[in-house]
Amino acid sequence: MNRPIRLKFFWQEYLERSFSLTIPLAAILAAFALSGLLILAWGSSPLEAYVALFSGAFGSPSAIATTLQRLTPLVFTGLAVTYGYRGGFFNIGAEGQLYMGAIAAVWVAITFPDWPSWLLVPSCILASALMGMVWVILPALLKARRGINEVLSTLLMNYIAIQYFEWVIRVDHAMRDFTPPGGLGWAFYNWLGLKDPTQPHPKSPFLVEAAHLPTLKSILETPLLQGWLGGSEWYQQLLSVTALGRISLAPFLGLFAALFIYFLMFRTVTGYRARAVGINPEAAKFMGINVPRTLFTTALVSGALAGLAGGMEVLGTQHRVIPNFLVNAGFDGIPVALIGQLNPLAVLLSATFFGALRAGANKMQVVSSVPVAVVYVIQALAIMFAIAGTTIDIGLALRKRRVAQMRREQETLEVESEAANA
Amino acid sequence: MSELLRLEKMRKTFPGVLANDDIDLSIEQGEIHALLGENGAGKTTLMNCVYGVYRPDRGRIFWKGKEVTIHQARDAIALGIGMVHQHFMLVPPLTVAENVILGLPSPREPLLDIKAVEKEVEELSQRYGLAVNPSAQIWQLPVGVQQRVEILKALYRKAELLILDEPTAVLTPIEVDELFAVLKSLKEKGISVIFISHKLEEVMKICDRITVLRDGRKIATLKTTETTPRELAKMMVGREVFLKIDKPPLKPGEIVLKVEALSAKDNRGLPAVRNVSFEVRRYEILGIAGVDGNGQAELADVLSGMRRASSGRVEILGKDVTDCTPLEIINHGVAYIPPDRQHTGLILDFTVAENLVGKSFFKSPLSKWGILRRESIEEFAQQAIQEYGIRTPGAQVKAKLLSGGNQQKVVLARELSGNPDLIIASQPTRGLDVGATEYVRTKMVEARNRGAAILLISTELEEVLTLSDRIAVMYGGEIVGIVPADQADIHEIGEMMAGTKRLVDGTLTLKIQETEKAYESSD
Questions:
Q1: Which spans in A147-280 are helix H?
Q2: Before B365, cis peptide (omega within 30)?
Q3: Which of A75, A258, A320, B207 could serve as A351's disulfide partner, Cβ 3.0–4.6 Å?
């Protein structure tokens, strides 16, 4: 008696899930359509432009490598915003945490260049996550203890982080072959600095090889794999693809992070508490959940993810920091999270969308003379449509009807059984 | 008597819900007509259609024999229909007279002649025995008087038919009597009243005819003199209801909750609970009666760890739990049914299963090493759904989609699952229909029979009277009397609720306690 109902209900669920994916997809399509009009007005063919955009993002191994590089920091900041938001901590400070994470990773790499790769890379990653956490502690405490709005405090922390970065990148780093002038105080000052003393411009030294995240190429070239697969033809072919040298482990760590955050959010006690506090802190308190502590933990996780975004960019892609090395990746985490419907797995898709736009923009400009800025129009429109789309909750309407029907069915059953008893 | 209003085949649907299904209704001049039904039976919807708030899908409205169309409230008012909503539509800083003419032209346009209005309001108030001072500001007036201002507003607009939506929900027993007197005088002057309610006794007391609605359908229209509460209850629910809950007399056991000279402040920092002392024992339900806003909510908050006490002491099974966190208090074996299930009782965006495990999700077997075990949770949820008869398509449905009664069952299942020693139930049946109310009450009595101590806080006197073994009355943050339920006199309790009588002298008990403390410290 129960089974057909549950089976039907399963389909209902399935339908609803696909609807929640439909909204962002429809938003993206609508954004492309509307921007097409803009491109037409510009005097180019939208179709041609979009084909160029797509091939610039996915058309060749090299294009894919670029897309992966672009999307990686967005995955991490998108996850940071998603987890924070779901837990009632709207982290606008991913930008600042990202900068601090990058600083930490670079600092560890240039301070301990002699460490072996297996120690140095994890240390750098850990340092970036920790520094992201440190940067969120103050807003988190203010929010948890005093209820001070985290939107404002995390936003303001961004400016401090960016200015600190601008300063630290102009201070000579005390390296082995560079003895800083002045006394002990200056030694500490230079110990903090990130600038390559041999260079006139504000930029950090290029990180030693041991601090680079392994690339697909370097993994393929390890003696173990070489000995194992060395003879086969496709292995040689694969090695000849130079783009593999630009694909580091970072995007794969991003994938892992998304899976991990999904698990943390929906399958663990910590995630349950975080979501409860995020939806209804008052009810969570009545259930005995320690709301301030939960908020604090949530903020730390969010900060760590944002810090990792900076670390991954430095260790996997740029291998050094320069002024404006990664602009707005932190802020872009917010639309990435929104289009991803605040779901860690969907964040992967929306980050891919954002990354592909950035990667393909140049080719679009070259091929169809449509300016790169159109990409940001598409992006902005997609965000607006996605937000507007959330008001059309088809899934909820469907489910409401289902529940009402369910109730009627059950009542009939009860009446029947009562009649049978009597 | 002539017919004033007639409704024919009124139908109103909301997406997925048939709220009114071809309802016929006839109201005569000068009668008090009850619309009786459970919550969600469609009473308010029907009246909102008459008052022009909703547009019915189909159906005809006749006013004094002529067919009329009502598109908005203004049309209804022009005909002579007035409605007093459950939540008053008054502007607190304005005076009575100012509220009365709000939206109407002044007698001396474009100048505001408030004196003339005040005079007319005064006359109306005298004629119908309303006793309202037209120049008083609304916020200064008690709820009962505010309600009479709403009635005045309708009368000033020359209403011949008054629709009152659950008018007694916010009133003390004395205010209810006053309201009934007003209704009688309105009736004598030829004004018809539609009295929306789900309370049988009141309907029986004041109304001439009763129309019972159930699930959006009209069941019957009866003369009050020709029916019984039992018959009406059966019609409302569709089956026999046990209005009296079977409660065996039990001997109270050890003291579970002991409250000593407890005081607490409200959100504005003003004293809300003043020097309250009582105890609740095993096998006992202590009911706290009182009009809403007399410190009961703050008392419950302090006992459940949601609010700090400003002084005094709370003990559970002999252990001091004053100002412990909610979790610590839960761990002492306390269950709390909060007054507002939508905001504090449940997380509506969580699934039924997630809500059901809200107090045990971090314990074995529901989780292990911090990882939730989905099968165990599903099993736990299915068991609770079965045991408490929660009507839901499944455990993975969001709680917000359930009806009020089923939501409250989820709260009950969560709170009662660990066989708590103490249950604090704050307004456990507020807004529930008769069937769900009966269920909740039965569960509470079961818990008492099992040996739990129960503190029941309710503004519905009837509920406190049916369930409690002892009754405490709160007024102005103090407990003004505690009486055994079998010796309780409803009038005496009503007087205590209104603050006109007290059995316990607050200052005296305080002095006794102080002397006791002095003795203890000298030892």
A1: 150-168, 184-192, 216-220, 223-229, 233-239, 250-267, 269-279
A2: yes
A3: A75
Count how many pairs of residues, chain A against chain B, have C-beta atoms within 8 Å.
89
Pull the structure tokens for residue B464. 């406190």
Q: Which of B327, B371, B392 sits opposite A267 (nearest CB)?
A: B371
DSSP notation for B48-110: HHHTTSS--SEEEEEETTEEE---SHHHHHHHTEEEE-SS----TTSBHHHHHHTTS--TBTT
Q: CB-based contacts of A254: which residues, under 8 Å, 6+ apart? A: A71, A72, A75, A76, A312, A348, A351
- Count of residues for chain B? 523
Cα B258 to Cα B10: distance, rounded to the nearest angstrom: 55
CA distance B511 to B20: 60
Rounded-to-integer distance, Cα B430 and Cα B439, Å: 13
Residues of chain B in contact with residue A404, where contact means CB-CB under 8 angstroms, are: 16-17
Is-contact B203 B36, C-beta < 8 A? yes
Query: Which among A272, A276, A288 has CB closest to B326?
Result: A288
d(CA B261, CA A323): 65
In one letter, which amino acid is B252? P
Q: Which two tokens stand for residue B218?
A: 């009209």
Q: Rounded distance, CA B51 to CA B45, Å?
A: 10
Residues B135-185: tens digit of each pLDDT: 888 888 888 888 889 999 998 988 899 999 888 877 777 888 889 999 999
Least confident of B14-18, B56-60, B406-410: B14-18
Q: pLDDT tens digit string along B388-424?
A: 888 777 788 888 777 777 888 899 899 888 889 999 9
First to last CA, chain B: 80
Instruction: For residue A272, list chain B residues with Cβ-Cβ distance below 8 A.
Output: 354, 361-362, 372
Q: Which domains does chain B possess?
A: 3-237 (3.40.50.300), 255-333+418-522 (3.40.50.300), 351-417 (no CATH)
Cβ-proximal residues to A209 (8 Å cutoff; 6+ apart), any chain = A117
- What 3 state SS string does B461-507 have? HHHHHHHCCEEEEEECCEEEEEEEHHHCCHHHHHHHHHCCCCCCCHH
Least confidently predicted of A390-399, B8-17, B128-137, B147-156: A390-399
Residues of A in contact with B398 (CB under 8 A): 399
Amino acid code (one letter) for B446: E
Q: Which residues of B120-138 are buried (b: 16+ CB within 10 A; e: fewer)?
A: bbbebbeebebebbbeeeb
Query: How confident is the model over A373-391, as a mean pLDDT?
Result: 85
* Cβ-based interface (< 8 Å): residues of A facing B: 5-6, 9, 13, 267-270, 272, 275-276, 279-280, 282-290, 397, 399-404, 406-407, 410, 418
Q: What number of other Cβ atoms are within 10 A of residue B484's Cβ?
A: 10
Alpha helix (H) residue ranges in B343-433: 352-356, 374-388, 404-416
Is A342 within 8 Å of A83 (Cβ atoms)?
A: no
Global pTM reads 0.73
Find out whether A261 and A333 touch, Cβ atoms under 8 Å.
no
Nearest by Cα to A23 from A325, A421, A386, A418: A386
* Closest approach of B16 to chain A, Cα-based (Å): 6
Q: Which chain A residues are Cβ-neighbours of B396 within 8 angstroms?
A: 13
- Contact B359/A287, CB-based, under 8 Å? yes
Cβ contact, residue pair A404, B17, below 8 Å: yes
CA distances from residue B83 to B61, B125, B192, B198, B211 in whole angstroms, order as listed: 16, 18, 12, 18, 18
Structure-token pair, residue B209: 């005819």
Half-sphere exposure of B334 (CA within 13 A, CB side): 32
Q: Kindly give the pairing relationship between strand B81-84 and strand B161-165.
A: parallel
